[in-house]
Amino acid sequence: MTLTRITAPATDLITLAQAKAHLRVDHDAENDYISALVSAATAYLDARDGVLGEALVTQTWRYSMDVAPVGAVELPLGPVQSVVSVGYYDTAGAQQTFSAANYRLTLGGAVELVSGASWPSLASRSDAIWIDYVAGYGTATDVPQTVLQACRLMVGEMFENRASASTVQVYGALAMKLLLGASRSARGLF
């Protein structure tokens, strides 16, 4: 099973203006540096490799499997907004689209077959069937405020402490841990 981002979020978690307001910076000399910090903080928090283990701002992912699922497919990265399509390689190796009439998205973010439907016969390959889906809370303003505040705190920590520091030192602020701990799926923080 493979999870690949198809479309990255259109924005970071906070804007340059929001970061500068948090930092109380009123000049433009460090805009590039502050933007880089915002991107680094966003990457630390967001998506498959982020500490929260969920998509924050809307993005599109492909979940590929080598065999037909047995039962519902739990999409590995949420919150899931919608399924774009389900595709597969048939036994002749031709790429096909699985009809949306055959499946539905559950409230929990799983793809399940409707009554009477079955998964198609597949070619033998590592990406025999895939689900393209949209995940994330929506725009950055839809992301939980605790996560946005943690992002601002991370940017502030990195801005104030430019010297080399371990991840634990930079991201170890108690306030940030408490904010991220409030997120239902925070992992690897403590």
Main attributes?
190 residues; alpha+beta; 2 domains; 5-stranded antiparallel β-sheet; 27% helix; 23% strand; elongated
Write a structural description.
There is one protein chain. The protein is of the alpha+beta class and 190 residues long. The chain has 2 domains: 2-54 and 142-181, no CATH class; 59-135, no CATH class. It contains 5 helices and 8 strands; from the N terminus they run βααβββββββααα. It has a 5-stranded antiparallel sheet, with no helix packed on it. Strands 3-7-6 form a 3-stranded antiparallel sheet, with no helix packed on it. Strand 4 (80-89) and strand 5 (95-98) form a beta hairpin. Helix 1 packs across helix 3 (145-160), helix 2 packs across helix 3 and helix 3 (145-160) runs antiparallel to helix 5 (174-181).
Task: Provide a concise account of the structure shown.
This protein has 190 residues and is an alpha+beta fold.
Helix fraction, binned, reads 25-40%
Task: Report the count of strand segments.
Answer: 8
Shape: elongated
Give me the side-by-side strand order of the main sheet. 1-2-8-4-5
The major β-sheet equals: 5 strands, antiparallel
Q: Determine the N-to-C terminus distance.
A: 28 Å
Average pLDDT works out at: 90
H-E order: EHHEEEEEEEHHH
Q: What fraction strand?
A: 15-25%
Helical segment count: 5
Low-confidence stretches: none
Count the domains.
Answer: 2
**Structural class determined from secondary elements:** alpha+beta
Oligomeric state of the chains? single chain
The rounded Rg comes to 20 Å
